[in-house]
Write a structure and sequence with these properties.
Keywords: DNA-binding, Plasmid, Transcription, Transcription regulation
InterPro entries: Sig_transdc_resp-reg_C-effctor (IPR016032), Tscrpt_reg_LuxR_C (IPR000792), WH-like_DNA-bd_sf (IPR036388)
Pfam families: GerE
Radius of gyration: 19 Å
Order of helices and strands: EHHHHHHHHEEEHH
Largest sheet: 2 strands, parallel
GO biological process, one term: regulation of DNA-templated transcription
Low-confidence stretches: 1-13, 158-198, 203-212
CATH class of the domain at 18-89 and 137-165 and 193-207: Mainly Alpha
Protein name: Response regulator transcription factor
Structural class: mainly alpha
Shape: globular
Number of helices: 10
Helix content: 40-55%
Number of strands: 4
CATH topology of the domain at 18-89 and 137-165 and 193-207: Arc Repressor Mutant, subunit A
Strand order of the largest sheet: 1-2
CATH architecture of the domain at 18-89 and 137-165 and 193-207: Orthogonal Bundle
Strand content: under 5%
Length: about 230
């Protein structure tokens, strides 16, 4: 197995004129983390149907129903570039897995990938499982996000999300004066109008284990109310 050079997805980027709402970026951040609608709803303290509606509106605006492609467009359009990267050891992909990964990011199904690469569907499924395993990804969209974070996919036009890894896999970030991206752990403020944490904060809270469920929030609120009336 060899480390493939990062490659950009050669295609017309859908949704170039589309402007997602702050809430949609929050939901897309959850998708990029590999979370389900229920998990995203619990984290953002909103109803599950609201998450599904936001996903549907986002897909309609981008012209795709594939969540992996939504994440790819999110990185290509700069909506997710401040999402804090998830630490991983050095990721190794074969050339074939790299091509399958590109097809996944383009929103293609296993059958479409098989037709494009002249492979059997079962072979494609095997490659997809390998990709998910090597990235330690929960779902295809999660694998695409990790691929952008670790240089296996490039921003459309050739720009790579550049993260330098310590030997243990923890990311560090050089300053803008050195030509590197700003620290992705910085809170992205595009969703501030909603009064909730942004996409970057959404991710950071989960990585650091700081996620608070709705039940915990209700418990805290009840304790606070009891304390105020006593």
């Amino acid at each position: 197995m060899t480390i493939s050079d990062p490659e950009s997805i050669v295609r017309t980027v859908p949704g170039q004129a589309y402007k997602p709402t702050g809430r949609q970026v929050q939901v897309l951040s959850g998708i990029a983390r590999g979370h389900t609608n229920a998990e995203i709803a619990d984290h953002l303290d909103i109803a599950w149907p609201t998450v599904q509606r936001q996903v549907s509106l986002l897909g309609r605006g981008l012209g795709t129903n594939a969540r992996a492609e939504m994440v790819a467009v999110g990185y290509e359009q700069g909506w997710l570039t401040n999402l804090s990267p998830e630490p991983r050891e050095r990721i190794v992909l074969s050339d074939r897995c790299q091509k399958v990964l590109q097809c996944i990011a383009a929103g293609k199904s296993n059958e479409e990938i098989a037709a494009d690469l002249y492979l059997s569907v079962n072979t494609v499924k095997t490659h997809v499982r390998r990709i998910l395993g090597v990235f330690r990804a929960r779902r295809r969209a999660h694998a695409v996000a990790l691929a952008y974070q670790h240089g296996h996919l490039c921003i459309h036009g050739g720009e790579v999300l550049r993260f330098v890894n310590w030997p243990g896999g923890l990311p560090r970030h050089r300053g803008p004066e050195e030509g590197w991206l700003p620290d992705p752990a910085r809170t992205w403020r595009g969703a501030a109008s909603h009064g909730r944490e942004s996409g970057a904060a959404y991710a950071s809270a989960n990585v650091l284990g700081g996620r608070t469920s709705r039940q915990e929030k209700r418990t805290r609120l009840a304790k606070s109310s009891d304390g105020g009336t006593s």
